[in-house]
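F.,

This is the one I mentioned.
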């Protein structure tokens, strides 16, 4: 069974992702912040990581950097989620800009909340090379 780690401080988001992924046959592990999530991801070696940007303790940017910089987990596809984008600043984040921000390989996808399941599923398949 393929394994996913969902790292998000919002229990409702974790519940929705768990439900969707389990319906598609995934085993889902959860973490409520980036500090716990990075540790779980590195130790559990999932096929994919779903990572929120705005979280307490350690945000998604720092978590992305930690996961990418560790030789055990740097190859794992990451789908990042955000409920806040920089529209008011006249710029909009995407996967490449997130990678440049923390100077690591960008996430395979960068999606906005509320999550559109069809778009998420497509991003997941692309991230996994299917």
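My design for it:
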């Amino acid at each position: 069974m393929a394994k996913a780690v969902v790292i998000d401080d919002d229990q409702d988001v974790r519940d929705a992702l768990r439900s969707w992924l389990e319906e598609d046959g995934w085993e889902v592990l959860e973490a409520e912040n980036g500090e716990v999530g990075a540790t779980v991801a590195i130790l559990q070696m999932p096929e994919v990581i779903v990572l929120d940007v705005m979280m307490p303790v350690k945000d998604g940017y720092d978590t992305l950097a930690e996961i990418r910089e560790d030789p055990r987990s740097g190859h794992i596809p990451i789908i990042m989620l955000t409920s806040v984008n920089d529209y008011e600043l006249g710029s909009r984040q995407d996967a490449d800009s997130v990678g440049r921000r923390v100077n690591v390989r960008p996430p395979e996808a960068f999606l906005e909340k509320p999550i559109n399941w069809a778009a998420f599923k497509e991003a997941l398949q692309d991230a996994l090379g299917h």
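Residues 11-23 form the longest helix (13 residues).

Talk soon.
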